[in-house]
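Please, why this fold?
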Amino acid sequence: MAASLVLAVVIVLHNLVPDVGGLGLVIDSAAPWLGLGIPVLLVLAAFARRGRPWVAALVPLVAWVLMFGASIIPLKWTAPPASATTLTVASQNVEASSGTGAASAADLVATGAQVVAIQEMDAASRTEISSVLDATYEYSYQVGTVGLWSSYPILNAQPWDLGLGWQRALAADLETPEGLVSIYVIHAASARIGDHADRDEMLKNLANVLPNDENDRVIAVGDFNAASTDRAFKPILSQLSEPNQSDGLFGFTWPASPFPVTRLDHFLQRGLDVISNTVIPAGGSDHLAIVATVNL
């Protein structure tokens, strides 16, 4: 029973686990997977032949459902119908070293998105990606490792270093038929065990910027290098909401192969009704792409 209580406490309070030696980062990123400890408790209790085995699993099970149950409900169960004017945004970290940026761009165009956001471009992949996307999208803006392509005019575009001194993000307005929509494209610094200060700084500065946005409708999309359960991500989630997956579950995006175990890539918004949100493979990147549609 003691192990059951410990597991339940870690599930609920994982953000309070001290980040000593990177433990906090690991626990936060793996938080949904802590539920795998529940069947282990059942097996151990059954072999011990003491009490009722299901009791050992009940407390952490309730804790897991309270923490993560609502986030895995399919969005399609509650999503509003599409309005007369919708906006689809596709985004991917294309993994520059994969050499498949052009293939990723072609796959994102095939989604029918009006807006495409790209992260982790290097000089070579930027040229290849641009050659594909420029043929479909009239407007574009790129800076550093990120780029934005749009069927709608891009206004007030500007680079953002978000405190790091080099450009890994951008901010702009999309001039849609229903008015302006702010969009931020983010490629957060990498987060590794014992080395995520730069990422934390970027996320903190983005959280500080968001309250000053003058538009009622805001989108932030890209590779945040933070799971939805990461403590450093919480200040952003307190201002922008992340929609559930259209078909349910967590929508993990990394690594693309052999199977994803965490969601580092996000579509966040406020002031919009999300009607679909999915992840898809694109190109040969180690990140799956995200595709989300909202009513304007």
